[in-house]
Every structure is written in C-alpha cells, then in structure tokens.
Write a structure and sequence with these properties.
The chain is built from twelve helices and 13 strands. With 328 residues, the chain is an alpha/beta fold. It folds into two domains: 215 residues, Spore Coat Polysaccharide Biosynthesis Protein SpsA, Chain A (Alpha-Beta Complex); 79 residues. The strands form two sheets. Strands 1, 2, 3, 4, 5, 6, 7, 10, 11 and 12 form a ten-stranded mixed β-sheet that branches. Strands 8-9-13 form a three-stranded antiparallel β-sheet. β2, α2 and β3 form a beta-alpha-beta unit. α8 packs parallel to α10. The longest helix is centred in the last third of the chain and has 21 residues.
C-alpha cells in the first residue's frame, strides 16, 4: 500500500501563489496515488487567502494563526495537526512537477530515511537553484555552499547536508521525535539546517533526488516584507545560533573567541553595523540556546546518537565517495 501524505503549507498573503501553484501540488499527490490531506497554516493574511481556500478548496484544512510568529512556528502547527505517515513541507511559491512525489516516496522503504527533497529550479525552470548540499567543517564552522547532483540517471542515493523547508518530504514519526523545527530561528532561515543536523546526529539520513523537480520563485514573501539589511542580519544571527547550539561543549569557548574577533570586529571596522545587531541577537538568546542544547542531548541519549557536526560531515563525504557527480 502506498504511503499517506500530509502537506503542510504555511501562507502569508499568498492568495495569488495558492491560486497558481496548488493545482500542481494536487496533481503530484494524485499522480503518487496516495491518500493525502492538505493543511494550510495562515499567518494572519490580509489578502483573502482564507476566503479563496474556503470557496475553491473546502476540503483543505485551515489553521488560522492569530499572530505571525514566523516560518518554523507555522510549520510546527501544521506538523502537529498532520495525521499521515509522511509530511510534505511546502512553500506557497513552489510549483511541483507532476511526478515529484512519485520519485520521493520509495526512499521511505529504508527505515533510516529521515527525509528527501528534489532539485529546486529558479523561476525560469532552467537553472538549478538547490541540489544536494555538501558540508565542510573547518575552524569550528559548518558551511554547505558546495552543491552537487549525479551525472547518471541510475545513481544510488545522494545524501544532502540538509533538506530545504520549501519542498521536502519527511517521515512524520521521526519529525515528531525531533519536535519539529526549533522556533529559536524565527522568523526565518537556518531552521531546516538545524532540523536536518539533528536528524543526522541521531543516525537518520537526508537525501536528494535529482529526478524530482520543482520551480521556486525564491524567497517571495521574505523579500516582499523585509529590507535586505534586515534579512542579512537575521541570516547571520541564525548561523551564530546554529553553531552555539550544535558545537561540542569543549569547542564553544574557542568558537566564541573566533566569532567575535574574526567575524564581528572585522565587519564593524568595514562599517557593516548590522553584524552587531546579529551578535546582540545571539547574546539575547542565551537561555533559549541552553534549552535547545539540553533537548538535543536528551534526544541523543534516548536514541543512542553520538555524532558531532564533524562526524556528520565525514559521514556525508563517505556516502558520496565513488559517485559520479556534477558540481554546481
């Protein structure tokens, strides 16, 4: 019997996007020949999104937030409401190919699979925006700016550092074990890296399927409501939060020193004062960081997970060995 799917789709003033792209999501679900439900989590939209869904898609479950608390909070509301085996986390500005889910579902025959995502194309549909992310961990910093995809259609499974929150299919039971996204990263960015890193640390795997494609408008909501400097400030703050949460205790002091003297101070000297707001944001989250670190430790003890960021990096590189890959 085919897997069952719950689509979790956060929405903020995305009526036009829902109108354009929901039909393609439904076609992909029908093509996969699986039972499904669609859950739209609305963040106090003012553009008649709710009315549009009620009139055109009455079968869709709506969760209406009374306050916009960001991407991770909205996704978590949908994840908690989901009833099916797999959860498709989907942005409202993503257009799925008709065989998208059909290509991803077989990955879950492997009990170690946490989730899988397809390739993300830019709005032209011609350029690859996101493929498999390859990690590098150096000087206590994790980067995943290198992207690869298989040369052959018949390549074995390709691991990825993290699953994009815009288009990934995830095992719901494992997702609930991790308690969904860590809302410390609100309003957006890095929450999907954090989620995937927690999954890797517990021994689960995140994959990339090159034959499943989708088109993404690209941070449509974010760019519409935040200035570039604010987006940069949030991005760097959340990268700091990620390392503060995931680095081993013995490395934290050294990382803090490097962060302040090799990143914050140089940028300030160049007049990039937004970095100071990012750093203050890190300091303001001290209590939440400790809470997140404790939560991961407890989960790793319960699941007998022992991996560090460096271990995860080495594992992904090992899984990629001897594969014929194109580098983007």
């Amino acid at each position: 019997m085919n897997k069952t799917i719950s689509v979790v789709l956060p929405n903020f003033n995305g009526k036009n996007l829902l109108e354009s792209f929901l039909p393609f999501t439904i076609m992909a679900l029908n093509q996969a020949n699986c039972a499904y439900e669609i859950i739209v989590v609305d963040d106090v939209s003012q553009d008649n999104s709710i009315l549009f869904l009620e009139e055109n898609y009455p079968e869709i479950i709506q969760i209406k937030n009374t306050q916009n608390k960001g991407f991770s909070f909205s996704c978590n509301q949908g994840i908690l409401a989901a009833k099916n085996e797999l959860v498709l986390l989907l942005n409202s500005d993503v257009k799925l190919s008709v065989d998208y889910l059909e290509k991803l579902i077989p990955y879950f025959d492997d009990v170690d699979t946490f989730g899988v995502m397809g390739q993300i194309l830019d709005k032209s549909g011609e350029k690859i925006e996101v493929a498999a992310k390859v990690p590098r961990f150096k000087c206590l910093k994790l980067k995943s700016d290198k992207q690869v995809h298989p040369k052959s259609l018949f390549s074995s499974k390709i691991p990825t550092t993290f699953l994009s929150g815009a288009n990934c299919l995830i095992d719901r039971e494992k997702l609930l074990d991790l308690e969904g996204f860590d809302e410390i990263y609100s309003p957006f960015y890095t929450e999907d890296l954090d989620l995937s890193m927690r999954a890797w640390k517990l021994g689960w795997k995140c994959y990339y399927e090159h034959q499943a494609t989708c088109i993404h408008l690209g941070s449509h909501t974010t760019k519409s409501h935040f200035q570039k400097t604010k987006i940069k400030e949030i991005y760097f703050r959340n990268r700091m939060l990620f390392h503060a949460i995931h680095l081993n205790r013995k490395d934290i002091r050294r990382w803090q020193f490097q962060l302040f003297f090799l990143e914050v101070i140089p940028k300030l000297l160049l007049g990039q004062f937004w970095i100071l707001r990012s750093y203050i944001g890190l300091l303001d989250h001290k209590r939440q960081i400790q809470k997140s670190r404790r939560k991961i430790r407890k989960l790793m003890m319960r699941k007998r997970g022992k991996k560090s960021i460096a271990d995860v990096t080495n594992e992904i590189h090992f899984l990629l060995e001897n594969k014929e890959l194109n580098i983007l």
